[in-house]
Sequence to fold (301 residues):
Amino acid sequence: MEVPPDTYWDLFAAYSALWLIIVIACWRLMGRYKQLADRLSLLEDRVQRAADELPDN
Amino acid sequence: MQIERYINTKYLTSSRLGTRVLPLAAASLVLIAMVIVFLIVPTEAVMGAVQRIFYFHVGSAMACYAMIALVLVGSSFFLASREAAWDAMAEAAAFVAFVFASIVLVTGSIWGHSAWNTWWRWEPRLVSFLILWLLLFSYVLLRQFSAGSERAEAFAAVLGILIALNVPVVIFSIKLLSHAEQLHPEVVAQRGLRDYRFIVGLVVSNIALIAAALWFWWLRLTGTVIERSIRLGALRAHSIERFN
Fold:
């Protein structure tokens, strides 16, 4: 039996919008992680310098 | 293998693979899959429009299995080497696998309600998948309530291997009963996809959702590694402060 081709523009638009929101949220999260990683690296340097200043024993 | 070379905050937040290739591939592949599923694939003759959920249902299951493969790799190598990076890799993958397993259960129920007139049926494929979901849920709970515990890391690794062992059970559970005794279809094996567009839709949505899962895994792994670095840094700073 031949199935007539149907299109679902409304569903496509709704799910594409939802996917776009997810992509933007993940992209922003990625940027936030980058900032956190940079700040963490600075903090680790400070902790390392503090550890180096401790007396040997 | 020097896994720490790759699983650290610097590499995870700056490598082109995780910050450019994976996000762009996942974002565009999912969009292409949606074009195929909603605008190109014809409506199935018996089930009608609701059959289109099949592409996301099966794709999510494939993405869930791909993540469980990473859980198996991470857990096995962690037990062998005790390197924290393998554990972080397994933890992040289990979390993403849990999300996709939940999507499989929800989309399966919606499809089942429309096709079989019931949200749930106690048959082998559904029950074995529910057990897989419960195992993943217990893994996520274990990690949430035992952050920083070395013993819990070993327990989680064993649980991760058990989760992976359950995947073949889910896949072959469909063979336990005859087709007459269960409702869950074996679409590909029974040659249910006669129009080539159904197959294209299925293959593309599987690849797209696996790419999306890999991107989410990368993100979750980055978060996990940052969280662990903060915890370790705080401990170190605290001990230096006490010494002073």
